[in-house]
Amino acid sequence: MSEVKPTVEREGSQKRSLSYKKEKCVGCGICTDICPTEALKLGPLVPIARGLLDMDYVKVDKEKCALCGLCAASCPFEAMEFKIDDVNIKELEAYPKWEQKANIDEETCIYCKACETACPTEAITVTRKLPERTKLVSGEIDINKDTCIYCGICEEMCPAEAITMNKENPEEPEITVDEDKCVYCLICKRSCPVKAIKAACRSCSYGAYEIHPEDAEITGNAFIDEETCINCGWCQEVCPVDATTVTKPFEGEIIFKEDFECKGDSCHACVDICPCNAVSIVDGKSVVDERFCILCGACAKACPQKGIIVKREKINLENVRSASWQKQMNKLVEATSK
């Protein structure tokens, strides 16, 4: 990622700088909730999320900002970058560390690309190398050209398009089998009206197939871009072999107020702003699939009726040494809908 110009920068006994990364911000408002000097303010979330306004979700008041770094340490999306003497605080031992992460066990991964397809931020890239077809199935096929009447039935019936008929010279027609394409399914043999074809499959019995011989494994690589990943859990949920594990930034639940009358399709602000594709409209009302929700609070901030409450019970953030920082961060585990 290219170098980001600092939003706020000051020199002193230490050089301190704060940079806001617009492309990583989801408008959750975590930074505005805990800023001790109220230097951070949210913009109009819904118009920005819908692309109607070209603005930042968060506005930084340079005069109020104390360059303490609390916003950067608390942002699970790393939309705020705080540096001391040009060193990112993520690399400094004294500062908090997020435990959230997503991991793909390549010993288990079958490179099916389900995670890549499901990822809402396109953070996953799966490359794979498929084995040659001849490694998966083998056999023998022979066409008796003295018996063959060159009717073309085998060519029409072949599902792999492995058989080619050439009748340009009617006196000496030609028929060939591309054994790199042939899957030895025996359809040609069974459909030949004059029994001119002999074929056998060496890698299968009658109805039973060995599709993964040792020398025909699918290989590849699965990569998660930590800069883009938001640890939503889609990859973990769709993986058919449980190769993916995700630790989310928060633990808790989403609650809808009892007197909340959701406007559903006529509003869908929560749907538009959710970075995880965890919110949908069902029977005219908002529904949050907590399997994919990371409790960021963007939906609660965007809801014009303030009908959504984000109840966080735990923050997966370790090494918070400052008592004053801990006090501010405790605000994130209080039920909030503001």
Note down, in words, how this protein is organized.
It is a single chain. The protein is an alpha+beta fold and 338 residues long. The chain folds into three domains: 8-96, 2-Layer Sandwich (Alpha-Beta Plaits); 101-121 and 226-317, Alpha-Beta Plaits; 133-214, 2-Layer Sandwich (Alpha-Beta Plaits). Helices cover 17% and strands 27% of the residues. It has eleven helices and 22 strands. It has a four-stranded antiparallel beta sheet with strand order 1-2-5-6. It has a two-stranded antiparallel sheet with strand order 3-4. A two-stranded antiparallel sheet has the order 7-22.
Keywords:
single chain; elongated; alpha+beta; 338 residues; 11 helices; Alpha-Beta Plaits; 22 strands; four-stranded antiparallel β-sheet
So, CATH architecture of the largest domain?
2-Layer Sandwich
Calculate the terminal CA-CA distance, rounded to whole Å.
33 Å
Could you tell me the mean pLDDT?
90
β-strand percent reads 25-35%
The Cα radius of gyration reads 30 Å
Total beta strand runs: 22
* Total number of domains: 3
CATH C-level label of the largest domain: Alpha Beta
Shape: elongated
Number of helices: 11
Structural category: alpha+beta
The profile of the biggest β sheet is: 4 strands, antiparallel
Share of helical residues: 10-25%
